[in-house]
Amino acid sequence: QLRLVESGGGLVQPGGSLRLSCSASGRTLDYYAIGWFRQAPGKEREGVSCISANGGKTNYADSVRGRFTISVDNAENTVYLQMNSLKPEDTAVYYCMPSLIYPCRPLGAWGQGTQVTVSS
Question: CA-to-CA distance for 30 and 37, rounded, in angstroms?
């Protein structure tokens, strides 16, 4: 059974950067697309970015395109989300989820996520 654990969140000033990690265990990521999602206080959960199973396709929400980059390291069985030029509106709990299709449709139960806070 595939298990994903998010890490890398923290407090950063506007304009700063963070790299989130989504570490997989139990199975390899070769057969799964992986999506990053986020939920800000008082708001619905939204999709941020998705990478296909072979890493050949990626997509981004309009709000993060050009600032965030999703990538996969198959050797490490880890998906990363590099977040640059962070804005206060990026503050949220970030989750990674597996998907059997691309674009991503989250599959299974949500984990604890990792908190990202952008504030001066």
Answer: 20
pLDDT of residue 1 exceeding 90, the answer is no
- What b/e readout covers 88-117, taking b as 16+ CB neighbours within 10 angstroms? eebbbbbbbbbbeebebebeeeeeebbebe
The pLDDT tens digits of the residues spanning 39-55 come to 999 999 999 999 999 88
| pLDDT tens track for 58-90 | 999 999 999 999 999 999 999 999 999 999 999
Q: Is 58 in contact with 104 (CB distance < 8 Å)?
A: no
Q: What is the CA 66 to chain-centroid distance, rounded?
A: 15
**Local structure of residue 29 (DSSP, 8 states):** G
Q: Can you tell me the distance from the alpha carbon of 38 to that of 102, in angstroms, rounded to the nearest whole number?
A: 18
Asked whether 18 and 48 are in contact (CB, 8 A), the reply is no
SS3 annotation, 76-92:
CCEEEEEECCCCHHHCE
